[in-house]
Amino acid sequence: MKNEVWGPYRWEAKRSVGLFASPCCGATAVVEHGECRFPCQTLAMEPCQTLAMDPRQTRSQGPAPSAGYGETSMSIICGDHMAPRQALGMEVQAWTAGPPSVNLHSPDRGLKGETMERLLPNDDATDLLEVVRDFAQSELAPRAADAEENEEFPRETFRQMGEMGLLSLAYPEEYGGSGQPYETYLQALEEIAAAWMSVGVGTSVHTMTCYPVATFGTDEQKQRFLPEMLGGSLLGAYALSEAGAGSDVAAMTTRATRDGDDYVLRGTKSWISHGGHADFYITFARTGEGKSGISCFHVPADADGLEFGVPEKKMGLTGSSTTTVTYDDVRVPVDNLIGGEGKGMSIALSALTSGRLGIAASATGLAQAALDAASAYAKERHQFGQAIAGFQGMQFMLADMAAKVASARALYLDAARRRDRGMKFVREAAIAKMVATDAAMSVTTDAVQVLGGYGYTRDFPVERYMREAKVTQIFEGTNQIQRLVIARDL
Ligand SMILES: Cc1cc2nc3c(=O)[nH]c(=O)nc-3n(C[C@H](O)[C@H](O)[C@H](O)COP(=O)(O)OP(=O)(O)OC[C@H]3O[C@@H](n4cnc5c(N)ncnc54)[C@H](O)[C@@H]3O)c2cc1C
C-alpha cells in the first residue's frame, strides 16, 4: 500500500452530498444529486448510482439500499484523477493510497467499547445508554457537520428527542420525566455531545431550564408547566446574563415591576442560547436591590414585547443560536413567578451547579470524539514507512489525551453520584466543569496536531471540535469563576 499518491480510492458514502476537489485544476465543488462542473471536467452523480469522472478508471458498485433521512448509499471506486477531499455530513470510508480518509463516525470507532464498559447503576441504564448511543451515532453524527456549517438550529431534533424522553431523563416520572439518576443522564448526555456538540449543550441547557420549576415551583406550576417542558413539545432558554452582568450576575439591571396581577419586565439579556427558537425563557430580573432583589420568572416566547437580536457570529457551536433577548414591557402573570420574590439568585446558582455537570459531561463527550478521531487517524496515516501510531511521540500524546478524558469522566460522575445521594456537590461540580472543559480544549487541540495539516482543514471534524471546546471554558461560569467557587468551599 503506497501512501504518497492520490487514489485510486475505494470509498463508501451514505449520502449523496459531498465536497470534492479536482487536482487537475484545484477547484472544489459541492455535489448533490446531479451534475457538477469543474473548469477541467464534469462530474455526474445520481442518487443510488455512480460518481463518474474518468470512465476508464471509475467503477461503481451500487446502488445500495438507502438509509434514513433520505440518505443514499453507494460504493464507488474512482480513478486517480480525483480524490474526495471532504465529506460534508457524509459517512465516508476510504482506504488504499493517499492521505487516510477515516470513517470518524463509524459505530465501531471505539465509543461502543466505552458504552459497554461504563459503570452504570443498573441494567435499565445499560439498555438506555445503548439506545442513546445508537440514536446519537445514526441520527445526530451524520448531520452535525452540515448543520454546523450552515448554522441550522436543529429544532426538529429536539422535538424528536423530547418524544424519546431524552430531554427529561433526570426529572421525576410523575411530571413526565424519566426518573433517571443524574449519573445515568450525564452519561447519556456525553454520548449525545460526542455525536453533535450543539445538541448535547442544547439538551443540557433545556434540562437546566426545567430545574427552577421542578425544584422551586408550586404544585400548580409543576402541573401547568412541566409535562410540556419535559415532554419536549416546548424547548427552553435560560436568560440570566446581560451585557454588563456576565460573571457578576448580581449586576443585572433587567427589572420586573409588580402591576396588579402581573409583573412587567423591562431590560435586555445577552448571550441567550436558543434565543429566537425557544418556547419559554426562564428569566431572572430585579424586583428589589442587591443579591436578594432578584426573582425568577417563566416567560412564554409569544409574550407581547419579547424581541430577539440577530444571532451572534460565533467561532463554534454554530448550530446553536445565541441572541440577545429584549423585554419591552413584557407582562407575565404573578403565577409565573417561581420560588417567590427575591429567591432568584439562589435559584440561578443552584440551577447552574447542576447545569455545570451537563457542560462537564458534554465536554467529556467532545473530548472522547476527538480522541477517537485522532487514534483512528494515527493507525491509518503512514509516514517513514509505518503508521504514525507506532511512534512513541504519538503514543504518549494519545495516552495523555485518553488520561484527560478518563479524568474528566471520573470527576463529573463523582459529583453526579454525590448529587444522586443527596450529598453536597457544589465544589465537586465546579472541579468537574473546570477539569472537563480544560481537558476538552487540550484534547481537541492535540487531535488537530495528530492529524497534522489535515487536522487544520475542514476535511476532518477535529478543527470543529477544537472550536466547539473553547466556549465550554467560558459559559455557565468561566473557569476562573469555577476556581472562586472551589476556593470559597475549602
Ligand atoms: C455561546 C455562549 C452561550 C451562552 N449561553 C448563555 C445562556 O444561555 N444564558 C445565559 O444567561 N448566559 C449565557 N452565556 C453567557 C456566559 O455565561 C457568559 O459569557 C459568562 O458567564 C462570562 O461572562 P462575560 O462574557 O460577561 O465575561 P466577563 O464576566 O466579562 O469575564 C471576562 C474575563 O474576566 C474573568 N473574570 C471575571 N470576573 C473575575 C474574577 N472575579 N476573578 C477572576 N477572573 C474574572 C473571566 O473569567 C473572563 O476570563 C453564553 C455565552 C456564550 C459565549
TrEMBL record:
Q: Does the keyword Chloroplast apply?
A: no
Task: Describe the location of the Acyl-CoA dehydrogenase/oxidase C-terminal domain by residue ranges.
Answer: 342-489
Superkingdom: Bacteria
List the Pfam families. Answer: Acyl-CoA_dh_1, Acyl-CoA_dh_M, Acyl-CoA_dh_N
Q: Note whether Oxidoreductase occurs among the keywords.
A: yes
Under the heading Gene3D superfamilies, the entry gives:
Acyl-CoA dehydrogenase/oxidase, N-terminal domain, Butyryl-CoA Dehydrogenase, subunit A, domain 2, Butyryl-CoA Dehydrogenase, subunit A, domain 3
State the UniProt keywords alphabetically: FAD, Flavoprotein, Oxidoreductase
What cofactor does this one take?
Answer: FAD
Q: Where is the Acyl-CoA oxidase/dehydrogenase middle domain?
A: 237-330
Q: Residue limits of the Acyl-CoA dehydrogenase/oxidase N-terminal domain?
A: 123-232
Any one Gene Ontology MF annotation carried by this entry is: flavin adenine dinucleotide binding
Per the similarity annotation, which family is this? Belongs to the acyl-CoA dehydrogenase family.
Protein name, as recorded: Alkylation response protein AidB-like acyl-CoA dehydrogenase
The organism named in the record is: Propioniferax innocua
Taxonomic path: Bacteria, Bacillati, Actinomycetota, Actinomycetes, Propionibacteriales
